[in-house]
Structures are given as C-alpha cells and as structure tokens.
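New to this. Help decode both lines:
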Amino acid sequence: METFDLFLKYIVVPVGAFVWMIYTKINNHHTEIEVLKAQVEATKIAHDREFKEVRENFKRVFEKLDGIEEALRK
C-alpha cells in the first residue's frame, strides 16, 4: 500500500498536473490563434475596400484628365 501511495504521489499526480498545464496552454494558444485569424481577416477586408476606393479614385482622376485633354485639343 505504501508503494502505491508513493507511486501516486510522485508519478501520477505530477504527470497529471503536467498534462493539465499543457491542456490549458493549448486551449489558450488556440484562442489566441483564432483571435489573430479574425484580426487578419478584418485587416484584409479593410485593405481590399481601401484598395478598391483608391482604384476608383484613380479612374475618376484619369477620366477628368481625359476630359481636360479633349478640351485642350479642341
């Protein structure tokens, strides 16, 4: 019985504590990874929207320049 008690105290309990610590860290890392993925996706969407706006603004500028060029040629 004493051997079983020593086995529990010095092998099973520390291994169980180590496994529990690793489990909690993995869950924490999983949560952090999901948050980072969401941030990256939000940043990508914002970047795409801004890029589309810049592209549209350039189209308008070039249209105005074409209009000015046509007016000067007349």
User: Anything to note?
Assistant: The longest helix spans residues 2-73. The chain has a mean pLDDT of 95. Residues 50 and 56 are 10 Å apart (CA to CA).
